[in-house]
Design a protein that fits this description.
Two copies of one chain form a homodimer.
Chain A: H1 2-8, H2 16-44, E1 48-53, H3 60-71, E2 77-83, H4 88-96, E3 101-106, H5 118-124, E4 135-139, E5 156-162, H6 169-172, H7 174-178, E6 182-186, H8 198-208, E7 213-216, H9 225-237
Parallel strand pairs in A: 1-4, 1-5, 2-3, 2-4, 5-6, 6-7
Helix pairs in contact in A: 2-5, 3-4
Chain lengths: 238, 238
């Protein structure tokens, strides 16, 4: 009796919040399915994958321009760039290095989503020649909150925090740092003009995520880029 | 018959996406209800309200520190500060000006939400003495995407874009700029160290939102603050 009435007359107490949690669970489950399929494809083709996340304007694209140019004769790089609107970043990266595969994911086509999810990656992958790719870098939508927690099938997650954003961000946005394998403190060339204590950021990041690696660099001045290239090289050669 | 079977046996074709849209509509409707109640309270007490939005680290709190100090003898200011975690910003603002009412909304208590919504504001308002408030500034969670589109009951929306974030952000994150009444280009003191064309940003903002006001300023050097104070003054004196 209980089960019958339960099936035909959902309790009035079913709140929107409860329904929302259910739907979110469904969506998260779907995301995991897409991510698992992506992962299989990456393994099949021997592609290493990095998911790069940060606020807007922390220097993701500038760093990728340098990275693409640095590695262009060494291995084959592909980039998927997420933005709400415009193809600007994918076009910038095509100019940065000969032979790079650079494709944009415009989330305007997905309800102006504030992050990339595994389905968007799955639907973009046919635009890339994975069999001719050693490293795929996914540049997420600029957002220090929402990209966290959505696994895309990647090997490593990198979070950028730029010096002008301030040294209080790790504790204020802990979720994304907790998931990162590597924290890049970017725009280190601006440190004299900003109040920013890198050792404080490093300590707070390690408090939140033991074992996180931290590098300081500037795509503009070139400081610290060698260590970043070594990190990438180790991942690809693994 | 159709209605009976419809009630008892929802069509199998009801997808998660459709259910999600329904739930989102419900939530948006709920938000509008809370926002309308907030609005009534603000009108009743003659409080002007500004919703300030930007990426993390664009200088919202630094600007509010200056603003609070500037107006502390002129009118009564209250601030609600949204962050995922920590009370740091509300505490910073208490130090900035004697007598300021400064309260934190920690969205960890709301599923680590990436934005403020009208319900969070409604639940925080009892912590403020609205009858002793001329201007309420709501500092949203640092996020250039998700706070857009959620009306809190405010009079005006202000978006900050800091010079180090880059001059390509208006076209890449159009939604939030389309809703802004005022765009503040912040950290203008860093312009010599960054590639940033303010006139390009202004032109793109006006293309997206005709009639948007744009000011350039630096909370650090003080440049442009007078025009911002005039804007605030006009709003409060209206």
């Amino acid at each position: 009796m209980a089960s019958l009435s339960g099936r035909h007359h959902p309790k009035d107490g079913t709140s929107n919040a409860m329904k929302k949690i259910e739907i979110n669970k469904d969506l998260k489950g779907k995301n995991q399915e897409y991510a698992a399929t992506n992962r299989e494809l990456f393994l099949k083709h021997g592609v290493k994958v990095v998911n790069i996340m940060s606020s807007p304007g922390s220097g993701k694209t500038a760093l990728l321009e340098k990275t693409a140019a640095h590695f262009q004769d060494k291995f084959k790089l592909a980039v998927l760039v997420g933005d709400i609107s415009t193809n600007r970043d994918a076009e910038r990266l095509k100019l940065a290095a000969a032979g790079i595969q650079s494709e944009q994911i415009v989330t305007e086509n997905y309800g102006s989503a504030c992050h990339l999810d595994a389905r968007m990656i799955a639907e973009a992958l046919p635009r890339l020649a994975l069999e001719k790719t050693d490293l795929l870098i996914i540049e997420n939508v600029g957002n220090l909150v929402c990209p966290a927690g959505l696994y895309l099938g990647e090997d490593k997650r990198v979070v950028l925090l730029s010096v002008p954003e301030g040294d209080d961000k790790v504790k204020k946005y802990p979720v994304i740092f907790r998931e990162a394998d590597l924290l890049l403190i970017t725009k280190i060339d601006l440190i004299a003009a900003c109040d920013f204590a890198p050792q404080k950021v490093e300590a707070e990041a390690r408090e939140i995520k033991g074992g996180i690696e931290v590098l300081r660099l500037s795509a503009k001045s070139g400081e610290g880029l060698a260590e970043w290239y070594q990190w990438v090289d180790r991942l690809v050669s693994r």
